[in-house]
Each structure stands twice: as structure tokens, then as C-alpha cells.
Amino acid sequence: MRKLGNYLHETNWLLCATHGGYFTGRKQMKPTPVNPSRTMTRRDAIKKTILFSTSLWALAGASELRAQAPATKFPEGGLDFLAMGDFGSGNAVQRAVAAQMADFAKKLERPLTGVFAMGDNFYGKLTPERFAPHFEEMYSKEHLDFPFYACLGNHDYGPSYDSKQGPAKAQMQLDYAKNNPSSRWKMPAKWYAEEFPDAANPLLKVIFLDGSMFEGALTPKEKIDQKRFLEAEIAKNTAAKWRWIVCHYPLFSEGVHHDNARLIAEWGPLLNKHNISLYVAGHDHNLQHLQVDGYKNNFVVSGSAGASLYPIKRSGRGFAQKISGFVHIHVGADSFEVQYITSTGDCLHAFRRTQAGKTDTIIANGNGKRQKA
Ligand SMILES: [Fe+2]
User: Fold this and answer.
1) Which end of the chain, N or C, is less surrounded by CB atoms within 10 Å?
2) What global pTM score does this model have?
3) Which of 313, 193, 172 is closest to 244 using CA atoms?
4) Which neighbouring-strand residues pair with 298?
5) From the CA of 3, how far away is ligand 1's center (Å)?
6) Is the alpha carbon torsion for 247, 248, 249, 252 positive or negative?
7) Domains of the chain
8) pLDDT in tens, 10-59
9) Distance from residue 11's CA to the centre of ligand 1 (Å)
10) Number of Cβ within a 10 Å radius of residue 91
11) If you measure from the C-alpha of residue 287 to the centroid of ligand 1, how many angstroms do you get, rounded to a whole number?
């Protein structure tokens, strides 16, 4: 039954996306006026979605409809992270995902190390006053009291379709991290690397990047500096068993943004050559797990932690679903596991990757039975 709830829940987000707007601070942007014929079309579309969902529910076997709960028990050792992108709306969707992240953290029988906050951190005009309601108070201090490693997305550069604040909006986020070292908000630079649990004995190295290549975002010099930084970091010797890249922009996406030719050309060859096992991104407002011909990496998109959802435009390279949520990653010495968790607490998809590079699906589209490790 909860599976049907998921579909209806998604329909609600469709309503939000249609009739709502992004919150800018505490004030919501005025929705675009609609004419009656378009309203009828939307109603029809919603009705069709519900009918379609109901038909799916009727067609599927009862056993397949049981929602999968995310795993909360993992072997001793290793590290745990959450990853979310495109969250900074300040609206009910962001609150729902934030609440679910807190609930999952509470149930997880292990401490979490951190959150990857993957850009589009604040939609609309950013003022210093927004950090409290839309970050500090949004994410439970009780259950999510660990660093949020943040990177910048297109909306964080205040372009014309956002706040028109320009790079000052990104600088405000860098300044907030610098001026508030006790805050969970960590953004030491536009691009940076971290070793976990620490540099002395690392299990994992994460390189955080800024893929904002458009006019008005990274300057030509910054683009060159970042490329040199990436090449140096990726070539550096490390005792870490795993190396990942986290960035707002995916290289590959089944959603409306499609594949990013510029980043594929700039970073793609480095990913394979230097065994970056996982590339985690947001930007497309949905959840995806892709494996791409010619690449040995696993590609995760987790860009639905607060914004209106984007549809899936193509398929064939893995899991892709238009739904709000976040991912949980457990990394051990021999393998890591990724779970896709919705804003209603269901696990839709999960996979495991070994050190040897083998990838196994553990939960397939919310319908597969959990397999034994
Ligand atoms: Fe984005």
C-alpha cells in the first residue's frame, strides 16, 4: 500500500510544481497565471497520473507493492554519508526531505560522518538571514549534527533566472563557512579535497568540484586553476582505498539536463584513468544511478531534496526516477553500498560496488527483494 502512496505523493509534488513557486526567503514567488483550458489540461493530467498509478498498483503483485525500508544495519567499521542536491527552496519539499534524513540518521545503527550538500543550496535571493531558517534550523541539530560539505550549483551564482546577485551569492556562502567555523556548513573553497575519517589514516578521499562553466560563474582563471587542482589531487598518492568526486553537475543524466558534453570532455578521461569509483551529483531534480558504456565509474544523481521535480527523458543506463529524496552511502574497506531514499522513507533502489569494480543491484526500483550480502 505504501507503494501506491509513493505515486500519489509524487503526484502531489506535480501539483506543487505546477501551482507553486520557489520560496525566496520567506516570500514565495508569484505563480504564473493560468488560463482555464490549461487548468483543465493539468487536472486531466493529474487524473491520468492517479489512474495510471492505480492501474500499476492493480497490475503489480501484492508482494511487489511492499515498500522497502532502507537498511540501517551495516558491518562494523567503514563510514556513512548522506548526499543531497538542489535543496535550497525553503519550502515543504525541503522540509519533508530534511525530516526524512533526520529520521534515517536516527534509525541508522551507526554514526554518520557527513552530508554532501551538492549545490543549488539557496534558490532566489540570498541574504545572511536565510542561513538560519533554511540551513541551521532546517536540518535537525539533534540527528544531523555533523559537517555538511557543500559545493556550488548554477543557482548559487545568482544568474538572471535566479536572483541576479551574480558571484556575490556564491561568495556569501564561502564567507558564511569562514566566519562561522562552528557551523555545520563547510565550504572551504569552490573546489577542495577531504580525506575521511582523517588524513593520517584515510579510507576515502573525496574531491569536491565546481562545474559552473557558464558566463558569470567561474572566471577563465578559476577554470584553469581548478583543472590543475583536479589533475594534481587525482595523481597524488593516497592511502585511501576509495576516491570519489562530488559536484553539482552530473556528467551523465537521463533527465532534462541530459549529458554534460563540456564536463565529459574535461573530466571524463580522468575518471577512468584514475579509478574514481563514484561520481555523485545533483542538478537534475530526480534520483538516478547510471552505468555508462566506456566508463568504469558509478554515476549517482541525487538532485531532489527540495526543488520542483524534473521528468526523466530517456532511460537505458540504469535507475532513474522522478521523486524527491536523498541517498545514503556506506563505505567499507572492500565495498560500498548506496541506498536511494524517498521523502516518505522508502528505499527505491540500492547497489553495491566492490573494490574489484563489480556492481550489483541490491534493490531494483523498489520492487526487488533485498539480497543477502
Ligand atoms: Fe542546478
Assistant:
1) N
2) 0.83
3) 193
4) 278
5) 28
6) positive
7) 2-65 (no CATH), 79-363 (3.60.21.10)
8) 333 332 332 223 333 333 333 333 333 333 444 444 344 333 333 333 33
9) 22
10) 19
11) 14
